[in-house]
Design a protein that fits this description.
Length: about 280
C-alpha cells in the first residue's frame, strides 16, 4: 500500500521544479561569457570643420575619441594644438583615459595636435602608416612612446581593425569597427578613394560596412561623381552615412539629401553611438 503524504511533504515536492529552475538559471548565468552581452561604442568628434556643440571651435582638420572598445582610442589630432586642447576641455575629455593613438595619414590637419597630446599622455602606443617618413617616427619615439608601423590590415584591439596603409594620392589607414552582423568605418580624409576604402573594409571583415563616416575628400567632385559614390555605397550595403571635414559643403548636402534620416550629422562635440549588432544610433 502506497504511503500517504502529509500536507508538508506534498508542499516540499511541489516546490522541487521551481528550485531546480532557479538553480539551473543561476548556473548558466554564471558560465555565460561576458562577451555575449551587447556593448556600445561611443565616438566623440573632437576636431572638425563644423561645430555641433555650442562653445566648441570649428577648424579645418579632424580628430575623434573612441570609447567602449577594449582600448580607448584617439583617432587623429586635428590641426592647431590650441584648438584641439580647448575643444577637449570644453567637452570634458580625460586624455589620461586614452590607451592608443591611431593617425590616418601624414597631413598636418590630422597630426597637428599629436605633440600636445603626447605631452599630456605618453603612456600610449601610436599606430602610424608605414608610409610616414622615418623622421616622423623618430620624433614620436623621442618622447618615449612606442610606435607601431602599419602596412597591412591589423587588429588594433578587440573588435577594432586598421584597413592597412592603403595606396592612393596620399597613403592612408582608416578604422573599422566590428559590430557583429556588419561593420562600421571611420575615415580621416579618404585620399585613396572613399568607395575603395569601404570595399576594402568589407573584404577585410567579410561582411558589409553598414555605416561610414569621416572625411571623404570630395571637395572638387561634381554632383554626378558624388551620386556615383553613393550608388557604390548602396551596392556595398552602406545604410548610414556621416560626411564631414574635407568632403565639401555642397557635397555633404548631396549625401544628406540622398540618405535622409539615415544621414548622421557630424561636427565637434557630436557623439556617435554604434551598437554591437547594428549601425549608429
Amino acid at each position: 500500500m502506497a504511503k500517504r503524504l502529509n500536507p508538508d511533504e506534498k508542499e516540499w515536492i511541489m516546490r522541487i521544479p521551481t528550485c531546480l529552475l532557479i538553480a539551473v538559471s543561476v548556473f548558466f548565468a554564471a558560465v555565460t561569457p561576458a562577451a555575449v552581452a551587447e556593448t556600445e561604442i561611443s565616438v566623440t568628434i573632437l576636431y572638425d570643420n563644423y561645430a555641433h556643440t555650442p562653445g566648441t571651435t570649428a577648424d579645418w582638420g579632424f580628430a575623434a575619441l573612441v570609447e567602449g572598445t577594449e582600448k580607448t582610442i584617439l583617432f587623429d589630432t586635428g590641426t592647431r594644438p590650441e584648438i584641439f586642447r580647448d575643444n577637449i576641455e570644453k567637452l570634458g575629455v580625460d586624455l589620461s583615459s586614452v590607451d592608443l593613438v591611431v593617425i590616418s595619414h601624414n597631413h598636418g590637419d590630422h597630426t597637428g595636435g599629436l605633440e600636445y597630446f603626447l605631452g599630456e599622455n605618453s603612456d600610449v602606443h601610436v599606430y602610424l602608416p608605414a608610409s610616414f617618413p622615418d623622421t616622423f617616427f623618430r620624433k614620436v619615439e623621442g618622447t618615449g612612446v612606442k610606435t607601431i608601423r602599419i602596412s597591412e590590415s591589423v587588429q588594433i584591439c578587440s573588435g577594432v581593425y586598421s584597413t592597412g596603409d592603403l595606396d592612393g594620392p596620399v597613403r592612408e589607414q582608416s578604422l573599422i569597427f566590428d559590430t557583429g552582423t556588419s561593420a562600421v568605418l571611420m575615415t580621416g580624409c579618404a585620399h585613396p578613394g572613399i568607395a575603395k576604402i569601404v570595399e576594402r573594409a568589407s573584404e577585410i571583415m567579410g561582411k558589409p560596412v553598414s555605416f561610414v563616416f569621416g572625411g571623404f575628400h570630395l571637395m572638387e567632385a561634381s554632383r554626378a561623381e558624388v551620386e556615383a559614390v553613393i550608388d557604390r555605397f548602396d551596392h556595398l550595403g552602406v545604410k548610414q552615412c556621416g560626411a564631414t571635414h574635407c568632403t565639401g559643403e555642397e557635397q555633404i548636402g548631396w549625401f544628406r539629401e540622398r540618405y535622409g534620416e539615415n544621414y548622421i550629422p557630424m561636427g565637434v562635440g557630436q557623439v556617435i553611438k554604434i551598437g554591437s549588432s547594428s549601425g549608429s544610433k
